[in-house]
C-alpha cells in the first residue's frame, strides 16, 4: 500500500516561491504518474500538474508557466514549485498517485498540507 | 479546457435513501471519468474509476455509469458514513474536477 506525505512551509509571502515535497513510501516513485492537486479553503479541487519520472509532464494552463514539478528517484520524492504566489494560491496542497498512466484516476492521496500566502 | 458540471450542488437525504449525482462534461470524454468522496478534513478518496469500475474496498452500494458526456453516481441505500462531498474528475485531456456535490443528512 503506497503512502504519501506532503511537507513544506505553511506560510509563504506574496511574490515568493511555494516549494513542497511529497515523500512516497511503499513503492518506487519511478513506477507511476504523480499529480499535485490543491483545494482553497471551503472550495473545490483544482488539478495543478502531473509527472512521470520519464519526463512526461503536463500542467494546468490556468497556472501558465508558474509551475514546475520534479521527481527525485534517489529520495523517492515528488516536488512542486509555484512561483510568484498571491493570496489566491492559499490552499491545501495534495500529492496523489495515478492508478494507471497519465489519464488514470488518483487512487492514493497524501493527507494534504495547508499553505497560506500572506505577508 | 473541458468543463465538468455536477448536479445538484447540494442534496439532503436520509439514511436508506437512493441518491443519484450527475456529472456532465462540456465535450466528449469517453469513459475517462472518475468519482471521489471527501469528508471534512480529509483527502479525497477514489470510489469509481473509468466511469464504472468500483475500487477495491468500496461498498457495492456505490455505482457509476455513463460515457461520452453524461455520467451518474448512484448510492443505492445511504449509510451514515456516506454523507460527504462527491467530486467527478475527467482525465480525457488536462484533468478537471466538477465543483462538487455536498450530500447532507435530511
Q: Kindly provide the radius of gyration of chain B, computed on alpha-carbon positions and rounded to a whole number of angstroms.
A: 13 Å
Give the CA-based shape of chain B. Answer: globular
Helical coverage of chain B, percent range = under 10%
Helix amount of chain A: under 10%
- What shape does the CA trace of chain A take? globular
Content of β-strand of chain B: over 45%
Number of strands of chain B: 11
Which quaternary structure do these chains form? heterodimer
Put simply, the count of helices of chain B is 0
Indicate the proportion of strand residues of chain A: over 45%
Sheet having the most strands of chain B? 7 strands, mixed
The termini of chain B sit apart by: 35 Å
Pattern of helices and strands of chain A:
EEEEEEEEEEE
Give helix and strand order of chain B, one letter per element, not per position.
Answer: EEEEEEEEEEE
Low-confidence stretches of chain B: none
Number of strands of chain A: 11
Structural class of chain B: mainly beta
Notes on the structure:
- The complex is a heterodimer of chains A (about 120) and B (about 110).
- Chain A is an all-beta fold and about 120 residues long.
- In chain A, about 0% of the residues lie in helices and about 50% in strands.
- Chain A has strands at about 5, 10, 20-25, 35-40, 45-50, 55-60, 65-70, 75-80, 90-100, 105-110, 115.
- In chain A, the strands form two sheets. In chain A, strands 2, 4, 5, 6, 9, 10 and 11 form a seven-stranded mixed sheet that branches.
- In chain A, a hairpin with a 7-residue loop joins β9 (about 90-100) and β10.
- Chain A starts with a strand and ends with a strand.
- With about 110 residues, chain B is an all-beta fold.
- The model of chain B has no long low-confidence stretch (mean pLDDT about 95).
- The chains are: A mainly beta (about 120), B mainly beta (about 110).
- The interface of A and B includes residues 58 and 110 of A.
Amino acid at each position: 500500500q503506497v503512502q504519501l506525505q506532503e511537507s513544506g512551509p505553511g506560510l509563504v509571502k506574496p511574490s515568493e516561491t511555494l516549494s513542497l515535497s511529497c515523500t512516497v513510501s511503499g513503492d518506487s516513485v519511478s513506477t507511476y504518474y504523480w499529480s499535485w492537486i490543491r483545494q482553497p479553503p471551503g472550495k473545490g479541487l483544482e488539478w495543478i500538474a502531473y509527472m512521470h519520472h520519464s519526463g512526461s509532464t503536463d500542467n494546468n494552463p490556468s497556472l501558465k508557466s508558474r509551475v514546475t514539478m520534479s521527481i527525485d528517484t534517489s529520495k523517492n520524492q515528488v516536488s512542486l514549485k509555484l512561483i510568484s504566489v498571491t493570496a489566491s494560491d492559499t490552499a491545501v496542497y495534495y500529492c496523489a498517485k495515478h492508478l494507471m498512466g497519465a489519464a488514470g484516476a488518483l487512487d492514493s492521496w497524501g493527507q494534504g498540507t495547508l499553505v497560506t500566502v500572506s505577508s | 479546457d473541458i468543463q465538468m458540471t455536477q448536479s445538484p450542488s447540494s442534496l439532503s437525504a436520509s439514511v436508506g435513501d437512493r441518491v443519484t449525482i450527475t456529472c456532465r462534461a462540456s465535450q466528449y470524454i469517453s469513459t475517462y471519468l472518475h468519482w471521489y468522496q471527501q469528508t471534512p478534513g480529509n483527502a479525497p478518496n477514489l470510489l469509481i474509476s473509468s466511469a464504472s469500475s468500483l475500487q477495491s474496498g468500496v461498498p457495492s452500494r456505490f455505482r457509476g455509469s455513463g460515457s461520452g458526456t453524461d455520467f451518474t453516481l448512484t448510492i443505492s441505500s445511504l449509510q451514515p458514513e456516506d454523507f460527504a462531498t462527491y467530486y467527478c474528475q475527467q482525465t480525457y485531456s488536462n484533468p478537471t474536477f466538477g465543483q462538487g456535490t455536498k450530500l447532507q443528512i435530511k
